Amino acid sequence: MAWKKAPDELIRFLAEQLRAVDCVSRTMFGYPVYFINGNMFIGAYQDDLFLRLAAQDREQAQAKYTEIRPFEPMPGRIMREYVILPRSVYKEQAIFTDLLTRSIRYVTSLPPKEKHRGKTQ
User: Fold this and answer.
1) What CA–CA distance (Å, rounded) separates 21 from 7?
2) Which residue from 106, 109, 2, 115 is spatially nearest to 56, judged by alpha carbons?
3) d(C-alpha 51, C-alpha 81), whole Å
4) pLDDT digit string, tens, across residues 8-19
5) Are 36 and 23 in contact (CB under 8 A)?
């Protein structure tokens, strides 16, 4: 499967929305992703955004907004806590702000992730 570059508009939108959030930006597979305490919570993927949500928030969001779907970056490889927010959802500022707030609340409740160390022999 060929990877599709995220549009510059999407990358700028994401950076602007997270400007006031205490998080760290990294690049994974050519896409910008953001972490809080070492836990990934949002990023760009092709033309869409993905977002990490608690189970209840995920279920509610998918029931309310039928365009939201599980994040499956490769066929058969669903990232279980993540959903895809298509443009029709993330461009609605009130919806996006609510979902982002829920994601941040969930991710900050998780224990900090330790950095992986190289293999020792």
Assistant:
1) 22
2) 106
3) 8
4) 999 999 999 999
5) yes
The DSSP secondary-structure symbol of 114 reads P
Structure tokens at 120: 């020792």
Answer for the pair 61, 83: CB distance below 8 angstroms, yes or no: yes
Distance of CA 25 to the CA centre of its chain: 12
Q: What is the pLDDT of residues 50-69, one digit of tens each?
A: 999 999 999 999 999 999 99
Name, in order, each residue with C-beta under 8 angstroms of 50's C-beta and a sequence gap of 6 or more: 42, 43, 44, 71, 79, 82, 83, 84, 85
In angstroms and rounded to an integer, the radius of gyration of the C-alpha atoms of the chain is 14
pLDDT at 3: 72
Residue 73 carries which side chain, given as an amino acid letter? P
